[in-house]
Structures are given as C-alpha cells and as structure tokens.
C-alpha cells in the first residue's frame, strides 16, 4: 500500500509536518523489516523517501526553522549533517551505476536463455554484481552516526538519512536473491519450453523492476541535492 504526504497546496504547520514525516518513517521501517517485502515495495519506498525529503525542505525554508538553523550550536549540527549527507549521495550515485550494470546483466541473461545457451556464466555475473552492491554498505556503516539534536529539521534529516541507508541496503539484499545459481544452471540445460518461457517472463519483470529502482534512486539523488542547496542557502543567508 502506498502512503502519500500532504499536497503542497494544503496548509500545514511545521509541527504537523513533523508528525506526518515521523509517520512515514515508521511505515518505511515496517516495510523494511517485513519478511515478505518485494522489489515493488522498495520502489514505492524510494518514492516516499523523495516526498519526505521534499517535505523536510519545505520545513527548513520556514522563518522559524531558518532562525533556529542559523544559531551557533545548531549551525554546527547542520554543518555536520551536511558532511554526513555526502555519504548518502555517494551511496545513491553508486547504487545508480550498480542498477544499470545489473539491468545489463539481466538483459544478457535473457538473450542467452532465448538462444538456448548455457546461462551459468551470466547467472554468476549477476550474483557477483549483486554482491558488489551489498559491499557498498560495509564501507559506510561507521561513517554516518550522528549525535542527538533538539533541532527539528536536523533531527528529521538524520532520521531520513538512516532510513535511506537501511532501505537501500535491504533493496540490495532482495536483488541478490532474485537469481539462484542451482535453479538457473539446471534449467539452462533442459528443453522444456514452458519452463524457459516462465524464466523469460521472470527476467523481463526483474529488468523492469531494476529500471524502476534506478529511477527511484535518481529521484532520491536529486531531492538530496535540493536539500543540500536549501541548507547551504539558509546558512549563507
């Protein structure tokens, strides 16, 4: 089920925005922890994260938030969060490239299957690429910890950053399980047309899903950039 933030045309207070964003965080956390989570749910989660970052940006542009963010102690917290956000930007950029490579690997697997070739090498390539995506998270696990802060915007940005990393990591875990070596290597040596057709459909669906993930991460990347620009404008005002 998709969840949507309020339309920008609907008047709302910073306090109600905060409550709404917190509700979205809780919903996303539940999705990530669900054993039945799917790639489609992760695609929806990326879109919802983009909406969350847009909502936080609106909050930081209010007069009260700008005054708070520019106070000496809060300014230091904002600058620290700006630094940590670079880690997430790098991660999103890496994920975009990885999704492109995964999609190309799936396309190669699909072509090999249609030709009736042994697809073992393509399956191994997919597994390697999926594992490569997961390795990205081992490099950032110790770089994103943040201190407690009583500034509403900084706190929400920190929470959004943490849920973003969790969602992307969970997405990579789901992708790594989409193609299993024993099943595909065995099927590639059979001539049961119905089984091959079924696998073609699975691969086409996987290719489409990875494309959706790629678009979702691209949108999230742009929203993160917009957030950084807005924060930097507040600090320089």
How would you characterize this protein structure?
It contains 8 helices and no strands. It has 237 residues and is mainly alpha-helical. It has one domain. The longest helix is centred in the middle third of the chain and has 44 residues, at 72-115. The two termini are 41 Å apart. Residues 1-11 have low confidence and may be disordered.
Major β-sheet profile: none
Mean pLDDT: 82
Portion in helices: over 70%
> How many strand segments?
0
Q: So what's the overall shape? A: elongated
Q: Quaternary state, please?
A: single chain
Integer count of domains: 1
How many individual helices? 8
Q: Compute the gyration radius: what is it?
A: 21 Å
Instruction: Measure the end-to-end span.
Output: 41 Å
How much β-strand is present in the residues? under 5%
Unreliable parts:
1-11
Given the helix and strand composition, which structural class is it? mainly alpha
**SSE topology string:** HHHHHHHH
